[in-house]
Automatic annotation (TrEMBL):
A Pfam family hit: Cytokin-bind
GO molecular-function term, one example from the UniProt record: cytokinin dehydrogenase activity
Protein name: FAD-binding protein
Source organism of this protein record: Bradyrhizobium arachidis
GO biological process, one term: cytokinin metabolic process
Keywords: FAD, Flavoprotein, Oxidoreductase
Family that this chain belongs to: Belongs to the oxygen-dependent FAD-linked oxidoreductase family.
Keyword Flavoprotein: yes
SUPFAM superfamilies reported in the protein's UniProt record: FAD-binding/transporter-associated domain-like, FAD-linked oxidases, C-terminal domain
Cofactor(s) this protein cannot do without: FAD
Alphabetized PROSITE patterns for the sequence: FAD_PCMH, OX2_COVAL_FAD, TAT
Residue ranges of every copy of the FAD-binding PCMH-type domain listed in the record: 58-228
Length: 473
């Protein structure tokens, strides 16, 4: 989002004086139309852009957008907004699907200018929260290092994924991106700058990671790094049905054959489904993996094997992004539903749901993500997962060919029905989904961890200004 008209505040005016007199131009009863001391855009083009997200389902128009360049400016904005009684939503890359980074008649805080990579050490990187994972990987790979968990798409911001979890192909080994955080610099809803970690303000640290931005805005993160492998050998194995795919996925998981294990059910050109296991093995050029050993005993032999540099492999989604941007489908509504199933009944639940879908529900480039993972490495308290050792991400990644709004609205209603069914079967929502959730739904979702989030919200955002888009409180 690039605001085309910004007002830069008068230099030399004290923050206190500015905050006290700050009102937005055009606000009724405005005593002094002098804008506050940070970049501010309230033109209709900027506000219209901030009223949209990747989902293109919900539109909520903010009163203004601001783009802080320092954490001090984040403090100023939050204090000022609180005084004005305005809600505030942080925005990273705007890839939410259901208005979660929007603030109706409030302030959208675009973190795109807070994107520096500050420091890289052998075991950690210090980055601003507006940086994308692409920025982070580029910088760390130059030193032969990588974050242990990368999302499949690198165009997401660090703050945006830490607010929800951040799952990737290595999550079975390393947990989620929220499990890789060593320290966070945040600004609370009260406008207080704090550094939190497992040993400092630990309760806030736990409430911020996967806490749906209800207590604080993340400005900077210290993230764990590991040595990056040089190359990835990637295997794409095809199966005739979900049961045989599931059996091989479970075997590969139990035997820990691959560094990355994922899979999907994808529409085929005849209106049916293809069932595929997607796996990767990391290696250095002088020790290539033995395909025969890795694939021994797996049921399917129609495998495709490819070999890529680690960075190229991590960025593989960029090709699909380019295609979807060029055919316009990137800009259509995306009524996604993302959940985690119990390992023990995943096959049964997924089979039932898939039997009721057809390829038009997904679109030709859509997919149903489906793979098992161990959850022992997932330790983020607010990241909810089914209570079993093996859980199964089960995601309806809908990429419709049409921008027809009524179609998307129908899918959103359907998402709710499917979610209710999945929940009854012990499944859990991944909150990046496009569906309406009430405060009670969220309390049920967080279960025993709900008091952690509720109490931290009361303490750190007592006026409840942050991130209204989830309807949590
Ligand atoms: C193409 C695509 C691929 C994806 N792949 C994956 C994947 O592999 N794994 C996965 O886990 N998820 C994936 N997602 C989902 C994605 O992680 C979430 O939607 C994420 O929140 C988007 O990040 P963003 O920077 O675009 O955030 P935005 O949409 O801008 O914001 C999302 C939420 O985070 C909050 N937020 C943003 N920045 C901050 C901050 N600095 N501090 C506090 N809160 C903040 C916002 O207020 C909002 O509530 C994918 C989404 C898309 C569209």
């Amino acid at each position: 989002m690039a605001p085309n008209r910004r007002t830069l505040l008068h230099a030399g005016v004290s923050v206190t004086a500015t905050l006290a007199s700050a009102t937005l131009a055009g606000q009724s009863g405005a005593r002094d139309p002098q804008p506050p001391k940070f970049l501010l855009a309230d033109d209709s083009e900027s506000c219209a852009a901030a009223a949209q997200d990747f989902g293109h389902i919900v539109q909520r128009r903010p009163r203004a957008i601001c783009k802080p360049a320092t954490s001090g400016e984040v403090v100023d904005i939050l204090r000022w907004a609180r005084e004005q009684g305005l809600k505030v939503a942080a925005r990273g890359q705007g890839h939410a699907t259901y208005g979660r980074a929007m603030a109706e008649d409030g302030i959208v805080m675009d973190l795109g200018a807070l994107a520096a990579i500050h420091r890289i050490e052998p075991d950690r990187v210090v980055v601003d929260a507006g940086a994308t994972w692409h920025d982070v990987l580029d910088a760390t790979l130059a030193k032969g290092l990588t974050p242990p968990v990368l999302t499949n798409y690198l165009g997401l911001s660090v703050g945006g994924t830490l607010a929800v979890g951040g799952i990737g192909g290595s999550s079975s080994r390393h947990g989620l991106q929220t499990d890789q955080v060593l320290e966070l610099d945040v600004v609370t809803g009260e406008g207080v700058e704090l550094t939190c970690s497992p040993t400092a303000h630990a309760e806030l640290f736990d409430a911020v990671r996967a806490g749906l931005s209800q207590c604080a805005i993340i400005t900077r993160a210290t993230l764990r790094l590991m040595r990056a492998p040089e190359r990835v050998r990637r295997y794409l194995l095809s199966y005739p049905d979900l049961a045989s795919l599931t059996a091989d996925q479970r075997r590969a998981l139990d035997e820990r054959r691959f560094d990355q294990l994922q899979g999907a059910v994808v529409p085929d050109s005849a209106g049916g489904w293809r069932y595929q296991l997607e796996a990767g093995v990391f290696y250095d050029s002088n020790t290539p993996p033995d395909d025969k050993v890795l694939l021994a005993g797996l049921a399917d032999k129609r495998e495709t094997v490819s070999d890529l540099g680690f960075g190229e492999d991590a960025n593989a989604f960029a090709k699909l992004e380019k295609l979807l941007r060029s055919n316009g489908q990137w800009f259509n509504p995306h009524p996604w539903l993302l959940t985690y199933l119990r390992g023990s009944n995943a096959l049964e639940v997924a089979s039932e749901v898939i039997a009721e879908l057809n390829s038009d529900d997904l679109g030709p480039f859509g997919r149903i993500t489906y793979y098992p993972m161990f959850k022992d490495a997932c330790r983020t308290p607010l990241l909810r997962l089914p209570d079993e050792r093996v859980v199964v991400p089960f995601n309806l990644i809908r990429i419709p060919v049409t921008a027809y709004k009524a179609n998307a609205d129908r899918q959103v209603v359907r998402n709710r029905t499917l979610y209710d069914r999945i929940r009854e079967a012990g499944g859990i929502l991944y909150p990046v989904s496009a569906l309406a959730m009430s405060s009670q739904d969220w309390a049920d979702h967080f279960g025993a961890r709900w008091p952690l989030l509720r109490d931290a919200r009361r303490r750190h955002d007592p006026d409840g200004i942050l991130t209204p888009g989830y309807d949590l409180f």
